[in-house]
Amino acid sequence: MPNIVFTPQDMLIKTNLHDRPLYYTGYIGDVKVDRMHIDPGSSISIIPKGLLHHLRIPMHRLTPTSTAISGFNSGRSYPIGKIRLKCQIGDLQSEVTCYVIDTDTSYNILLGRPWIHDYMIVPSKLHQYFKYVDKHGFVKTEFTDIDPFKGVESYYSDSCLYEKSKRHLDEGNKQANTETATGSEEPLRSTSKLANREGPHPLLPLCGKTRSASRRGKSR
């Protein structure tokens, strides 16, 4: 297996003075979904019931479960069921077993340790990306969304972490541009592409367009 290495030069934000989690935009089935949270601290993967409605997944597809979810205050809650879903982030295609909760959350899906270990993913919140080895033996890197809340007013605590570190991100981009101009360092290949890409609508948990619908729009 090839070595997976993290270096200071690869940091999406050129400072360690941030507390950003790992949020991605990807696909569940054929539907584009934002705020996909990769969390090594969670022992299960979770999806809120509201997102299943947007995905048009009927409740009868859920499998009963007796698993209890423990919160930070040691309180217990019980999911209404679990479901196996197809999930894609960047080039990584995967399947994940999610426990369904009837609660509002800052994320649209939380991908926990079982999913992380199944696909031998090595995440770094500090660097703001994860790495993994694909089926051909190559190390792949997937950078996070720079602004998963899309600048819309949000009462979730996670959104504050992006406002706090925006200044450091801007400074890091200026530094990277300077280094590229002088030729002193190789620029980050994936950062600018992610920074400029169009994400799902900020007021909805997903954009509501499937991949097939996007293709039809391009062919017109």
From TrEMBL:
InterPro entries in alphabetical order: Peptidase_aspartic_dom_sf
Record region (Disordered): 171-220
Pfam family, one: Asp_protease_2
Polar residues composition-biased segments: 174-194
Protein name from the UniProt record: Uncharacterized protein
Source taxonomy: Eukaryota, Viridiplantae, Streptophyta, Embryophyta, Tracheophyta
